């Protein structure tokens, strides 16, 4: 049986979500600024939380520290992903971005567990809280985290690591608003139990908002079809191509948090030509944002009924 292969390489357009050198440079600067600003803020917030006896501030500082580690891992993965391919690493180091995303999600929930333990201790043994200092530091957190989220807002589409950084920073800014309100309530009412109670709310918000990201990174690590790509729609699209009577062995999987690959066998009794393959490559890229495409054309009939036909 004659077989024809077509592979769309790295230089082709990725449709509306293409990340060129300028975008990658912007994301790199965003990581640098985000890490520097948040590391300084974590140090100030941790010292202030200890001085003010505020578990809410310490909780927020612990979460921000995990975010700094996440930013560093994601940035490192992005830099490694730029390394060229080799005879052994034929896709380069793109896949490390998926591993970094999964590790970031795991670190986040580990940090939440540690903070939860500390918060329970503060709830059992409440101590006086410096409400004014809590409000001051949390207010600074709104500015730092809000600015960092804005830095990542441009590059969040199409990359789970960048989107994760954006969501983390945006969530942190909103959480800081809650800490400011909590600090004010403690200051004016003197209710010491409010501080650890607010810490519980913060932990719940972070855990809930991060669950979708954890689920997506686990799916990517298992080479599931990336979120945003409908495999049924892809199969239907392939079956609708001129002369195609069947599709089998269709596989769609992530090469990294940015790049997706596809392989498929198309049954096309009339055979193929370079124009058909060239047009198919670009249409798949434009329609589904899949940049690494390998298509095998089978000119014979569908063997053993092992494919989907357009007209069963």
Automatic annotation (TrEMBL):
Residues 35-219 form the Cation efflux protein transmembrane domain. GO terms for cellular component: plasma membrane. It is found in: Membrane. Residues 1-21 are annotated as: Disordered. It comes from the Bacteria. GO terms for molecular function: zinc ion transmembrane transporter activity. Residues 229-299 form the Cation efflux protein cytoplasmic domain. It is a multi-pass membrane protein. Residues 8-21 have a biased composition (Basic and acidic residues). Gene3D superfamilies: Cation efflux protein transmembrane domain. Keywords: Ion transport, Membrane, Transmembrane, Transmembrane helix, Transport, Zinc, Zinc transport. The chain crosses the membrane at residues 101-120, 132-153, 165-187, 193-214. InterPro entries: Cation_efflux, Cation_efflux_CTD, Cation_efflux_CTD_sf, Cation_efflux_TM, Cation_efflux_TMD_sf, CDF/SLC30A. Belongs to the cation diffusion facilitator (CDF) transporter (TC 2.A.4) family. SLC30A subfamily. PANTHER family: CATION EFFLUX PROTEIN/ ZINC TRANSPORTER, RE54080P-RELATED. This is Cation transporter. It comes from Hymenobacter gummosus.
